[in-house]
Each structure stands twice: as C-alpha cells, then as structure tokens.
Amino acid sequence: MFSNIGVPGLILILIVALVIFGPNKLPEIGRAFGKSIREFKNATSGIAEDIKAEIHEDIKEAKKVDITK
C-alpha cells in the first residue's frame, strides 16, 4: 500500500501533518490511528476464526452423512 510513496513522500506527508495539526496533537492522532488499526485487526481475525469454525463443523457433519444411501 505504502510502497509507492517512498521516503521523500513520507517526509512531506509528516511535515504537512505537523503543520496542520501541530506538535501537541500529532501524538494523540497517531495513538488513535494505531488503536483503530489494532481493533480492526482483532475484529477481522475474530471473523476469520468464526468462519473457520463453521467450515470445520460443516465438514464434520458431511463426514457423518452416509453417502451410499
């Protein structure tokens, strides 16, 4: 995602953010962004685990069904 930005682009973005938000607000914004990303990752991993559990249950049920009938 960020591979096309490069170091000069990243520095420019940080300078613009520093000018817009100021040095006091920037750490708060960074923490809030990090917390949001962490919660998103936790939610998506929870959903993935639920889907895997459902698939495993369906496979177990399918194995119990007698195919020869």
TrEMBL record:
Keyword Membrane: yes
Domain of life of the source: Bacteria
Keywords of this entry: Cell membrane, Membrane, Protein transport, Translocation, Transmembrane, Transmembrane helix, Transport
Subcellular localization, as worded in the UniProt entry: Cell membrane
Transmembrane segments: 6-23
Main location per the UniProt record: membrane
Membrane topology value: Single-pass membrane protein
One Pfam family matching this protein: TatA_B_E
GO terms assigned for molecular function: protein transmembrane transporter activity
InterPro entries xrefs: TatA/B/E, TatA/E
GO-annotated biological processes: protein transport by the Tat complex
GO cellular component entries: TAT protein transport complex
Subunit and partners: Forms a complex with TatC.
Classification via HAMAP family: TatA_E (MF_00236)
Assigned protein family: Belongs to the TatA/E family.
Free-text function comment from the UniProt entry: Part of the twin-arginine translocation (Tat) system that transports large folded proteins containing a characteristic twin-arginine motif in their signal peptide across membranes. TatA could form the protein-conducting channel of the Tat system.
Protein name: Sec-independent protein translocase protein TatA
UniProt source species: Neobacillus citreus
